[in-house]
């Protein structure tokens, strides 16, 4: 299978490298397109793929096409490729505001929404997936198995898309920030050095990940570490007092931004559809 990636920024570039490193796609079957060609060429050099000069070249050759641009750029890309696509091709959105149904408004082929996570770079961690119309059960299973080479694709539930994306896709950034704050506080209030604190936190996170893989729940981890009248219990009490409710504003803020993005995407796609239909 030949794979194309339109947009080689942070997520598009990560996805291209991950697909090659996992063996999901052979480097000679990977095609990249970026408006700034130098960026596409850099990812091509890192993956062994090829950076093409035009969207037409990519569309004509690829079976599976990922669009990895900003939400406000999606409708323009779809307009440009709509007349080039064949029914048997598959186009994938990797951003939460642009659904498979949105893509289907403008494109004559089958569509998928796939939201990756930076954890997929390690050929691990979850991703979110939703299939548009036109896939039978075997085709859904086959494409899910392909994605499973570098992630664990979990079904998107429409009403919880943003929350799920916050946890799976944004979660590594949020968690890293919290751990960074923990390291900074340790350095400021004790004699530990930053480099030492980072090493301890890093090894703790890696080990905790292994325990989670064994089936431990977060509650069980707390229970295992926290002994009666112990230091951990004192620390957990502080966290309970200081952190309870702190994440509610985070989800409120991300959902507000998501709603604005959805509104913008809806307007852009409606306008693009009118243009493609000759009414724009």
UniProtKB/TrEMBL annotation:
InterPro entries: 6-PGluconate_DH-like_C_sf (IPR008927), NAD(P)-bd_dom_sf (IPR036291), P5C_Rdtase_cat_N (IPR028939), P5CR-like_CS (IPR053790), P5CR_dimer (IPR029036), Pyrroline-COOH_reductase (IPR000304). Residues 2-96 form the Pyrroline-5-carboxylate reductase catalytic N-terminal domain. Keywords: NADP. The keyword Chloroplast does not apply. PROSITE patterns: P5CR. It comes from the Bacteria. NADP(+) binds at residues 6-11, 68-71. Residues 161-257 form the Pyrroline-5-carboxylate reductase dimerisation domain. One of its GO terms (molecular function) is pyrroline-5-carboxylate reductase activity. GO terms for biological process: L-proline biosynthetic process. Belongs to the pyrroline-5-carboxylate reductase family. PANTHER family: COME OPERON PROTEIN 4, PYRROLINE-5-CARBOXYLATE REDUCTASE. This is Competence protein ComER.
């Amino acid at each position: 299978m030949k794979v194309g990636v339109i947009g080689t920024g942070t997520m598009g570039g990560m996805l291209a490298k991950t697909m090659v490193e996992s063996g999901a796609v052979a480097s000679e079957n990977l095609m990249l397109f970026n408006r700034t060609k130098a960026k596409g060429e850099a990812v091509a050099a890192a993956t062994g793929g090829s950076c093409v000069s035009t969207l037409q070249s990519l569309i004509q050759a690829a079976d599976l096409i990922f669009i990895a641009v900003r939400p406000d750029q999606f409708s323009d890309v779809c307009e440009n490729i709509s007349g080039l696509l064949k029914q048997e091709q598959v186009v994938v959105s990797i951003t939460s505001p642009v659904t498979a149904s949105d893509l289907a408004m403008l494109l004559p082929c089958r569509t998928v929404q796939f939201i990756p996570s930076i954890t997929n770079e390690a050929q691990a961690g979850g991703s979110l997936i939703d299939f548009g119309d036109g896939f039978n059960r075997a085709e859904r299973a086959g494409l899910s198995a392909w994605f499973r080479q570098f992630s664990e694709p979990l079904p998107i539930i429409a009403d919880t898309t943003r929350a799920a994306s916050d946890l799976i896709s944004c979660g590594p950034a949020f968690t890293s920030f919290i751990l960074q704050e923990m390291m900074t506080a340790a350095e400021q209030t004790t004699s530990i050095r930053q480099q030492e604190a980072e090493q301890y936190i890093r090894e703790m996170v890696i080990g905790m990940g292994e325990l989670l893989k064994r089936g431990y729940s977060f509650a069980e981890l707390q229970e295992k570490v926290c002994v009666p009248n112990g230091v951990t219990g004192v620390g957990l009490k502080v966290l309970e007092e200081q952190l309870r409710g702190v994440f509610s504003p985070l989800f409120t803020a991300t959902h507000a931004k998501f709603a604005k993005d959805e509104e913008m995407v809806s307007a852009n796609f409606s306008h693009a559809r009118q243009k493609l239909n000759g009414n724009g």
